[in-house]
Amino acid sequence: MEPHHGTWHGKAEVPAGPDGKRIYLRLGGFATHTELSAFYEKAGCLLDLPDPGPAGHQARMEILAMIKAAHRKNAPLTMRSCSASSGPGNRCSR
To answer: In terms of domain of life, where is this protein from (predicted)?
Structure first.
């Protein structure tokens, strides 16, 4: 069996950069749709942490790189990371 045969792949749009260019999170290799959905839910929560618009663009790109690196290493994205970073009044509501 090929490594990606029979696995789930996803794509989500990240807020555009200051230049207006579209940015996507594209990942694959998930065993189930549930696994894919859970990963993208957590990734979306983390990507929502920086300020909206151009002010948070650099931070979003750094978080996007960390999400991709975690996926390559099969490391989990924990909600603790999201909750701890967002502060007491800003919990992820995804």
So the answer is: Bacteria
DSSP code, position 44: H
Would you tell me how many other CB atoms lie within 10 Å of the CB of residue 36? 18
Say how far apart CA 78 and CA 27 lie, in whole Å.
17
Tell me which residue of 87, 5, 79 sits closest to 39, measured CA to CA. 79
Helix axis angle, 79-86 relative to 33-47, nearest 10°?
20
State the CB neighbour count (10 A cutoff) for residue 82: 21
Supply the pTM of this predicted model.
0.77
Q: Domains of the chain: which residue ranges?
A: 8-84
Residue 3 has pLDDT above 70, yes or no: no
User: CA torsion 74→62→46→19, rounded to 10°?
Assistant: -130
